[in-house]
Amino acid sequence: MKKWCFAIAASVSLLSLAGCGAPGGDTTASSNKGSDAGIGNSRLQTVLDRGSLICGVDGGIPGFSFVENGEYSGLDVDTCKAVAAALFDDPTKVEYRDLDSTERFEALKGGEVDMLARNTTWTISRDTSVGMEFAPVTFYDGQGMLVREASGITELKDFEGKSVCVETGTTTELNLTDQMRQLGVNFTPQTFQDADAAYAAYEAGSCEGMTSDKSQLVARRSTLTNPDEHVLLEVTMSKEPLGPLTINNDSAWFDTVKWVTYALFQAEEFGLTSANVEAAVNSEDPNIKRFVGAEGTLGSDMGLPNDFALRAVKHVGNYGEIYERNLGEGSVFKLPRGLNAQWSEGGLIYSPPFR
To answer: Where is the signal peptide (predicted)?
Structure first.
């Protein structure tokens, strides 16, 4: 059962908020530094002063974060772009850092990156002992298994005496061990520091199976020499809620990443898209007017421009647009929304109210 936690700041002292008015005024986030949220000591101020966002990604998963012709694209990449757009009104103000599964958390802790959007699973240990703060889940997934169709393998029990390639330092590695132990299957895990090496070993025949999140397996299968020769087993080994994250104990920066992500969800629910969101400042609906910053102080109360949500949607699109072009019908994967549909459509994508 999932619990949404909201931190409501009390006794807010607002200074120099004139620069964070409705769209059309001077809405640079850096003009608003007086919030009681501790912005001056936050990563938020560091990012604003730098004038760009440093975002940790995988860089090798089509549909999530992938480099082609020198350009990054994918659902995770668009999350980074949305944060940059909200802060700077410019989605290109992002520097991407490719990080493998073992170095990602240390890179965040050490300040090498401002945030991660790197298909990272939200778990209790990562949320507590590792010291991370997880923003809303942007993709609900589950662990699967990729095999060669000609192998004759149809279930996990068929891996008795066989080997499985897996990326080390991931929840995938532990889930695999737990599942095989539960089934009493003696197998050999072949662990790799990064995903590229693991998939290369699988394609070379070093292991009979490759395990990871199902979405990643579908994406990576498309990069194999003969994709049609490989199939996903009808098995789901785990729950894998994936999303962006920040370092612990920095509420101002965490709130920024969290509410920009929620803005993508809420925009879809409101029917606001990259094409019509700017016109929404003239809406008669007070909920939409607050959302786009045409009235109220939702943005300035947290040290952001009041139109931060409008900026993110204008430049990157709502969650539905992002999903469709990267993973849905507008992509080569054509993955159905499933759990990643809006809550009103039977999915789990849900934003708390913008009020």
So the answer is: 1-18
253 in helix, strand or coil? Answer: helix
Backbone torsions φ then ψ of 97, nearest 5 degrees: -120, 120
152 and 230: one domain? yes
How many CB atoms neighbour CB 107 within 10 A?
17
| 106 occurs within a structural domain | yes
Q: Which of 302, 218, 308, 213 shows the shortest CA–CA distance to 267? A: 308
> Could you read off the pLDDT of 6-32 as tens digits, one per residue?
333 333 333 333 333 333 334 444 434
Q: Are 204 and 148 in contact (CB under 8 A)?
A: no
140, containing H or E segment: strand 139-141
How far is the C-alpha of 353 from the C-alpha of 208, rounded, in Å?
47
Is 269:260 a contact under the CB 8 Å cutoff?
Answer: no
Number of domains in the chain: 2
Burial of 41 (0-12, 13-18, 19+ CB in 10 A): exposed
- Which domain, by its residues, includes 313? 23-140+242-345
* Cα 269 from Cα 305, distance rounded (Å): 22
pLDDT band at 39 (very low <50, low <70, confident <90, very high): confident
Choosing from 238, 261, 290, the residue where a domain stops is 238
Q: What is the pLDDT of residues 103-138, one digit of tens each?
A: 999 999 999 999 999 999 999 999 999 999 999 999
Single out the residue of 181, 214, 156, 179 nearest to residue 335, CA to CA: 214
| Residue 308 within a domain | yes
Tell me the residue type at 166. Answer: V
Residue 101: pLDDT band (50, 70, 90) is confident
Q: Coil, helix or strand for 215?
A: helix
Q: Do residues 4 and 348 lie in contact, with contact meaning Cβ atoms separated by under 8 Å? A: no
Report the alpha-carbon distance of residue 73 to residue 20 in Å, rounded. 30
Residue-level length of the chain: 355
Block residue for tokens 């103000």:
93
* Sign of the dihedral defined by the CA atoms of residues 85, 88, 93, 99, in that order: negative
Q: Is residue 33 part of a domain?
A: yes
CATH at residue 337: 3.40.190.10
Per DSSP, the chain holds a count of helices (H) and strands (E) of 11, 15
